[in-house]
Write a structure and sequence with these properties.
12% strand; Rossmann fold; elongated; 2 domains; alpha/beta; 301 residues
Length: 301
């Protein structure tokens, strides 16, 4: 027997809410109403969820059997208060998508008889239909108050094509920190690496970029150099763990690391060497490198 089809209301039609709305609609649920204020949200709603009516928050609450709160973490408490004030029907399922929170933050709604869930897709969203396709290969951190909530949360995630992973209420912050460290801080790392490589390609006179490719100037050459290397490194560490480490730290090559630090220190952006030093120190700790490297990075820190 097919699972029950739900009338879904979304607060709001941002990147996450729109993608989840499309995925739930593909699973047969009815996206009946949503909130949308900005021009971007209104455009997303019109083009990707045209079946849904754009209403104010009380109107969405009144229409929904499943209420999806897809708002930033900082906005969530205020939205919960607004939902509570809108006289939601007992038995309504309410789920938020904030990574750092479980269901404790939804307690004001649980006290009104709502079924509360935390459904966080471990994915980055760019605001296109690619977001919806990526949900099918994503894991979701799910948290609920009881086994019934677990079953509902897992069912909803499976219907989107995703994989539910249960996270205890007490561990939601740690879960979110791990994702932010692995994904958001990766962006900072790669941005620094591109900047340093850009400087190396340009050379001391800044003319190297014009001869970087046979076709002439190419501002994206640093990203093209790093791309295959970074993708291979990511695949290797996910498969092999810390043993995937290569390079001067893995070789216990303190002399090369010392030259790296000097070269990066000479760049106008002095924070580049700070990031390199911090991550090299972590790599040293993970790899068990020798005393020379440890002392070099301790002296420089």
């Amino acid at each position: 027997m097919a699972p029950a089809r739900l009338r879904v209301g979304i607060v709001s039609a941002g990147r996450v809410g729109t993608a989840l709305g499309e995925a739930l609609a593909s699973a047969g649920h009815q996206i009946v109403a949503l909130t949308a204020r900005s021009p971007h949200s209104l455009h997303r709603a019109a083009t990707r969820l045209p079946q849904a009516r754009v209403l104010d928050l009380p109107g969405v609450v009144a229409e929904a059997q499943l209420l999806l709160l897809a708002v930033p973490d900082t906005a969530l408490p205020g939205v919960i208060d607004q939902v509570a004030a809108a006289n939601p029907r007992p038995g309504t399922i309410v789920a938020h998508t904030a990574g750092a929170h479980g269901v404790e933050i939804l307690e004001p709604l649980a006290e009104l008889g709502l079924i509360t869930l935390a459904l966080h897709p471990a994915m980055t969203f760019v605001g296109t239909t690619d977001d919806t396709a990526r949900l099918a290969s994503s894991c979701f951190g799910i948290t609920s108050a009881d086994e019934i909530g677990d079953a509902i949360a897992a069912s909803l995630v499976l219907e989107t094509g995703g994989t539910p992973v249960r996270i205890a209420e007490a561990d939601r912050t740690l879960y979110h920190a791990a994702l932010a460290h692995g994904a958001n801080n990766l962006i900072a790392l790669i941005t620094d690496a591109v900047a340093a490589l850009d400087a190396a390609i340009a050379g001391p006179d800044g003319l190297g970029r014009a001869t970087a490719t046979v076709d002439g100037p190419d501002a994206g050459v640093a990203a093209r150099i790093l791309g295959p290397l970074v993708r291979a490194s990511l695949e290797n560490v996910l498969e092999m763990g810390p043993s995937a480490l290569t390079g001067p730290v893995a070789r216990d090559d303190a002399a090369t690391v010392r030259r790296h630090l000097a070269a990066l220190s000479a760049l106008p952006d002095h924070d580049l060497v700070t990031g390199y030093r911090a991550l090299s120190a972590r790599a040293v700790a993970q790899s068990g490198a020798g005393r020379d490297l440890r002392e070099l990075l301790e002296v420089c820190s």
